[in-house]
Amino acid sequence: MTRMESPLALFPEARTDYDAFLRQQLATQPHNVMTHVLGHEQVWVKRAGAPHGVGRYRAMAVLAGLLRLPVLRPVPNPGGEAAIATEVRRLADLAARGVRVPEVLAVQPNGFAMRHLGRVGEEAHSLGNAIDRTLRAGDPAAVLALWQQGLDALTHVHRQGACLSQAFARNMVRDPSGAVVCIDFEDDPAAVLPLALCHARDALCYAHSTAIYLHQGGLLPAARARWAVWAAQGSPDMQAVLAASLRRMRWMRLLPASRRLGRDLQRVRAAYDLLRP
User: What are 151's strand-pairing partners?
Assistant: First the structure.
């Protein structure tokens, strides 16, 4: 989520009219996603962007078919007001299931307002950033603990019969208490894919976004053991999808572990090294 600071906005402390504030900001703020201060609290306003085309999703579907990897089947994000409606609906559903997500304060067809996940004036850092900073600080035990926290968050979501949208570590935010809050729900994988496939997709997204840090810290062996325990607790259907996907990803072991072919391929190779039996 783009982080843009807005000018200070002060509303009466007795009762904030979030609906009026949202209407004003949707009409005037220069960026689609901005943060604002209202008295003693901070909120985010997210406005609908332009609708998305479908060409790239068709290409991804063809690639998933060629690779025989259903877990790579694309989940369309239509953009525009449809994406806003999907995100608001998903936030309400996940909150009702006991999943930590941002609190929605006001909704309009072309945007919504939600409460900031950190303290006023302070950035709420993603789990990915937290892992990266901890790795640079030279604390491998803390890196593993943070990484495990993301796995535990996935476990909780999956046990509620739900899934995330893009379960990358950048979409898991740590609040001031250190708890993980999940963000970014403009698409709904469960609307187009079986739940077991959605859960496996969550797992692969998380592995792809975090394994590079484990590789850099020499933590892959320890993390691989933890991953095996985590995966064994998933549903039999999810385990079957993961096992089939890994068999068809064996070619990834041939990728160089160095940065010769770029960081993206390095992430892919590190993820395979984490997931392989």
Answer: none
Handedness of CA 245, 251, 257, 262 (dihedral sign): negative
Name the residue ranges covered by the structural domains of the chain: 18-54+58-115, 127-275
pLDDT in the model for residue 257:
64
Beta-bridged to residue 173, according to DSSP, are 126, 181
Among candidates 190, 188, 206, which has minimal Cα distance to 198?
Answer: 190
Q: What is the pTM of this model?
A: 0.89
- Average pLDDT of span 169-196: 97
Burial of 107 by CB count in 10 Å (0-12 exposed, 13-18 middle, 19+ buried)? buried
| Beta-bridge partners for 36 | 43
What is the tens place of the pLDDT at every residue in 215-235? 999 999 999 999 999 999 999
Residues 18-54+58-115: name the CATH superfamily.
Phosphorylase Kinase; domain 1 (3.30.200.20)
- Residue 46 is inside which H or E element, if any? strand 41-47
